[in-house]
Every structure is written in structure tokens, then in C-alpha cells.
């Protein structure tokens, strides 16, 4: 008997959002908590692995770019800026990378139970959000130990994290829906993440880009992910890290990355909603 036959006939019809938003949220939260616990079940270090991995990458990049490439020496609190960039990128990479295959990974559940399909990729984003919230706490501790000061602009951080989470959810919805039908999405997105890592000022400061090409710096800030990261550095670390309006040269131009982010979320939700009723059939 084939694996598909063992799973039973596909259930077709449940929408992306469902009839009750509370049911969607509760299910996504339950799946996220379950994934979070299972990830560290039986591990001696448990959650610490989520902190160790970005710290190891931070250590390697810090040595390479400060001791070998000699980059970041004139940037205020560069180690903190580097760590923040790695933590934020790790969140986006883990959330979207996990969401790509999330629907396929839960094929048995989807084919047998009627529930809002959107709960599956959202659970992946929530799991990554748990991790990044704890990691950002570590960044704040590192910042204070490095000589950073508590500033009123820190109040921007929750809004920036929320904006990043919504944008990430939009990308996750789009990728997960497309992967059900097109399995090339996964390797394509892995390459895209590599390009994002090197094409976004994560391990190099935006000031370096501005010195070489203001146009290139402005184009970078049109990327919602890059804009959120840069504004987070400005708000959390120090005013010497240029804000997004400063890089773009106008406060009004900030609407450009906002509009792009909203468009991505709308596209992701639209594609997912259209495909949701037939996901079980296409698995």
C-alpha cells in the first residue's frame, strides 16, 4: 500500500483564515509551542543552542572583519551592531526557511483534519519569534556591557520587531503556498537568503556603502528587511548609525519600503488564500 493511500483521501475545502480568528491564533500558538519544545527535547543545552549558533557566527565574522579586513573600526559599538544583524537575519532565515516546507511536513495532519491552513506557516514564524525575542534580550545585555546607554529610542524596538514579524509572515505565506506545487522554491529561496545576507548591511555598516555609492545605499533601504535592520541599529545602539530617513535623504521616502512590505504581505496572503482550499489535494 502506498504512503498516500495510508494517509487516506485528501480533505479539500478549509480556507486559509477560517471562520474564527481566535481558533487560528490558538492553533498557531499551540503548534509553535509544540515545535519549540520538541526542538530542544533531550538536548543538554536546550535553548542555549539558539544563542550559541549566532554567537559562533558572530565570533567568526568579528575576527575576520576587524582583524583581517579591518572593517568596522570606526563604527560605534560595531560588535553590537554585528551581533544585532546576525540575530535579526537568523530570525528571518529560520522563519522563512522553515515555512517553505511547513505544509508538506504536516501533510498527514492537513489531509486528515480540517483547520485554518494559515496556522501552519504562522506557527513557524511564531517559533522563530520566540527565539529572536530571547536573543534580542542577550543583545541588549551585550550592548550595556559594551558601554551602551539606555535611550528613549529603545521604545521603537517592539514596533520594529512587530513590523519584521508581519513582513516575515507575508514572505512565509507566499513561499509555503508555492512550495506545495513547485518544489524548486526551496533551493531558490536558499540562494536568495545567501544573496540577502551579503546584499544587506549585516556584517558591514551602511556608512561604507554610502561612501561608495549613495544610490546603492538608497536601493538597499528599499528592501523592508534591510530598512528594519538599519532602523533597529539606529534606535537600539546609537544615533551615529544612520536612520532609514537619513540614508534615503527624506522622511517621505520611508513610505517606499513600507509600501513594498505591505505589498509583499498582501501578495503572500492573497496567494495563500487562493491555494488554501486545494492544499490537501496537491500534497
How would you describe the overall organization of this protein?
The protein has 283 residues and is an all-alpha fold. It has one domain. It is built from 15 helices and no strands. Helix 2 crosses helix 7 (119-145), helix 3 (48-68) packs across helix 4 and helix 4 (78-100) packs antiparallel against helix 9. It is globular. The two termini are 17 Å apart. Mean pLDDT is 87; it is low at 1-8.
What is the gyration radius calculated from CA atoms? 20 Å
- Write the H/E string, N to C: HHHHHHHHHHHHHHH
Unreliable stretches (pLDDT < 50, length at least 5) are 1-8
Q: Please bin the fraction of helical residues.
A: over 70%
From the spread of the alpha carbons, the general shape counts as: globular
Report the end-to-end length measured between terminal Cα atoms.
Answer: 17 Å
What would the average pLDDT be, to the nearest integer? 87
How much β-strand is present in the residues?
under 5%
How many domains? The number is 1
Q: Can you count the beta strands?
A: 0
